[in-house]
Amino acid sequence: MAILDLDMARNSNSTAPPCHAHTAPASDQQRRLRQAECNKAGADADDPNHGHRPGAEEEEEEEEEEELLLKGVRHLCERRGITRLPARYVLPPSDRPAAPDHQRSSCPTIPVIDLARLRAPAERAAALAELDAACRDYGFFQVVGHGVGGRGMMMLDVARRFFDLPFGERARYMSPDIRAAVRYGTSFNQLNDGVLCWRDFLKLVCDDLDGVVPSWPDAPADLREVVSAYARSSRRLFRELMEAALEALGIGGPGAGEVLADCDAGSQMLMVNCFPACPEPDLTLGMPPHSDYGFLTILLQDEVNGLEVRHADRWVLVDPLPGSLVVNVGDHFEMYSNGRYKSVLHRVRVNSARSRISVASLHSLPPARVIGPAPELVDDVKNPRRYMDTDFATFLDYLSSAEGKHKSFLQTRRLLTS
């Protein structure tokens, strides 16, 4: 499940579509946006030659511009020192992020789960109830007392230094192959996005760490050591959280044992993200509204906020709690829980002052595993089955089908909608 950049993400079916939702082809949209900007500004209005260059020259310039943009946001900023957002990043007005809500006291905050309480026998029951409520009502929570601490700080530091490398070093890992185990890229799905997202990333598949680490970047010199140590810590945390969540769901015995064994043998992918400072942040997004495909995602982020979670029909900005990790439920876990736990939309907004670094560790079961509602959570009276079984091949079919353009993956697997 972790072999595709989009393996663990599904499109939004909200009114604010993801960057690769239905849009005009890039070149046509770019021309229209540029023309609209020119009309609005009135610039060059008196120049009779403005907008009348030969078609071949215009196409050549557009091809050069597209080639530049696909090299990434960092490269664009380093080369040009831009003060205006290029047209390919400008969302339609209806899809742009609203101005931040400064009435922070009125905004809900996502729950905080202290693992120290989960590990204390006298407090475990209460902590499990809090975890269950967080997964059920929000689909997101922040974790403290996780013990990752220093490895997380080292991970953010080496990530920042990787994105600070000269473009030639980063470009060694650029590839059009979205199945590549190591891939440096930009946007959300850069080959298909009609409007690009203000994001660069390094994707690292972490299955069989001993086998894949030698293929990872060798600069900075400590990247392989630091990232592999963090990946192992994240996998241990995923296992501990899954064990607690299964207990909170009331699933024990052989059923829990089978799932936990699959967690130990499951897929893991690190998405190391860089969201540079943006000259016009209210016109674009760092990542579009989406939900994650797997079981749980564990997010490490620096002190710069940007993650927003959809809750109660509004976007809630997640303020990074010092030393915390953010965890969210994925599509697979919603299906396995028969809808009790929620895989919710989230997005990333950018700012004009500071670059933001985050590392998402996406976890799921082995690709061959068929996933459906847990038998313990299904009965014919109160809790009928709400989802069809699914596997990785089903998800690939969804991505390549026309259905994937109109429905979220969860919608295609639902048997009941309420």
In short:
One of its GO terms (molecular function) is metal ion binding. The chain contains 13 helices and 13 strands.
Overall pLDDT confidence:
84
CATH architecture: Sandwich
CA(first)-CA(last) distance: 28 Å
Kindly provide the radius of gyration, computed on alpha-carbon positions and rounded to a whole number of angstroms. 22 Å
* Proportion of strand residues: 15-25%
Major sheet size, sense and barrel closure: 8 strands, mixed
Strand order of the largest sheet: 2-3-11-8-13-6-5-4
Number of helices: 13
How many domains, as an integer? 1
Question: What proportion of the residues is helical, as a percent range?
Answer: 25-40%
Shape: globular
CATH C-level class is Mainly Beta
- The CATH topology label is Jelly Rolls
Order of helices and strands: EHHHEHHEHHEEHHHEEEEEEHEEHH
CATH superfamily: B-lactam Antibiotic, Isopenicillin N Synthase, Chain
Briefly note the structural class of the backbone.
alpha+beta
- Got a strand count? 13
Give the uncertain stretches in residue-range form. 1-52, 102-106
Keywords: Cytoplasm, Dioxygenase, Iron, Metal-binding, Nucleus, Oxidoreductase
Biased composition (Basic and acidic residues): 47-56
Subcellular location: Cytoplasm; Nucleus
Cofactor: L-ascorbate
Give a structural overview.
Helix 5 crosses helix 9, helix 6 crosses helix 9 and helix 9 packs antiparallel against helix 10. It is globular and about 65 Å long. It contains 13 helices and 13 strands. The N terminus is likely disordered. 41% of the residues are buried. Helix content is 33%, strand content 17%. The two termini are 28 Å apart. It has an 8-stranded mixed sheet. A 5-stranded antiparallel sheet has the order 1-7-12-9-10, with no helix packed on it. It has one domain: B-lactam Antibiotic, Isopenicillin N Synthase, Chain (Jelly Rolls, Sandwich). By secondary structure, the protein is an alpha+beta fold.
